[in-house]
Amino acid sequence: MHFPLEQTSKNGGLPIKFFLTPELMPDAATVAQLEDLAKAAGLAHHVAVLPDVHRKSRNLSPTGTVVAAKNRIVPRAVDTGINCGIRMVRSDIDVRALTAPVLDAIFDELRRTIPVLEHERDALSEEEVADILVQGGQWSQKRFGLSDEELNCIENRATMPTDTADAAAIMASMPEKAIKKGLRSFCTIGDGNHFLELQEIIEVLDRDIAKLLGLAAGKAVFMLHTGSRTLGSRMMKLYLAELEEKFRPAQNGAPIWSMPADSEEGIKYARAVSAASNFGFANRIALTEKLRAAMRKALRDGSLQMPLLYDCAHVSIKLEEWNGGEKLWVHRHGASSALPPSRCASHPVFCKTGQPVPIPGSMGHHSFIGVADENAVATFCSVNHGAGRVMDKPDALARFTEQQVHSEMEAKNIRLYRYGSDNIAEQAPSSFKDISQVIRAMTALALARPVVRVRPVAVLKG
Hints:
Elements: E1 5-7, E2 16-18, H1 28-38, E3 43-54, E4 63-69, E5 72-73, E6 85-89, H2 100-113, H3 126-135, H4 137-144, H5 148-151, H6 167-172, H7 176-185, E7 195-204, H8 207-213, E8 220-226, H9 229-247, E9 259-260, H10 264-299, E10 308-313, E11 315-321, E12 327-333, E13 335-337, H11 350-353, E14 356-359, E15 367-372, E16 382-384, H12 393-399, H13 402-411, E17 415-418, H14 435-444, E18 448-461
Parallel strand pairs: 2-3, 17-18
Antiparallel strand pairs: 1-2, 3-4, 4-12, 5-9, 6-8, 6-10, 7-8, 7-18, 11-12, 13-16, 14-15, 15-18
């Protein structure tokens, strides 16, 4: 096992530990952002930097980072897409049976039943949105008839922890403008880097673990990437505008600030983050039901089973126990929750394998499904959530055209289905890192182990 590259932070900040190989070291501008992050008041231990680390112009802290704080919350340590995450759905479907007409039928049905941004009419009542925010996975279990087995394959059973079960207190933390966004954004994918991808398992890298997880060569799996949609982003933006004015130090204008978790503002914010995260889980659950229905309809098989492999967030803030039971507020920014086998004692399969983790490449490159390894504890039980970008979206738009992307996908025999809501050039495959380099770093540092390699067969994008 390799050891992380450690850098002493300037001006009294925390150490920065780079859990990557030298070829993946970020540029000077990204390191400068990491230096700012390391100086946030209340952070504990170190800043963990993952192999897919990259900088986005709209964010003050880099994607692919994890920090933990003692009794402090650092809102700017993550972006506004709270509970953006990925779920993996497995199947016993032979990909060779999915001919072009069948794929067209599947994805035409998905586009017909799932809007990209919002429904024309309310998809939920305000009471239903409130129930999701308060009840979390319990609401989804009742609505969709989820088994306990499926709920146990979702991070925190689709209910982010909070300090209270008082529905009125939780709802009081949610801005009315954010709640209203949930009425029409429920069961939508979103544009940008969100996707639904049908993949084929083309290589089994760990036969024993693959067998335990129900993964076999030639079979179809799905990755779904979306989150709490405009409900979550609106909530985060409204809070940032309010909290920044009060808690950002006026004397030095530090870009990354924190607030006491036990303050009135901290408690209210943490409740809102948890509630919006519950909406993100419910959104992915609802989309999976639409996917299953589309597959059963296209394949004319009403009994078709498509079990959930795992669902985890990669933008989150929550109170967790670290080594020795230490309570820390863990902030994951583009970093998947990743529990090693020792942290999965109550699960009959994951106690042997570790938690499954998605490691997507790009829509034009291979991806991987892995499992968390024991050294993920050093990154606060987190692992890279994908390949990471080498080119920010504005740069990709300047470099590539939509036609170039379509031509590349066609040349690779990948069917691209679109809503046409945004410019696909910003998601050009060449704007992402080489996933094989990221996998090597992740494996060398024992953060996670790759189990299967998959290739994209068909992709649904905005």
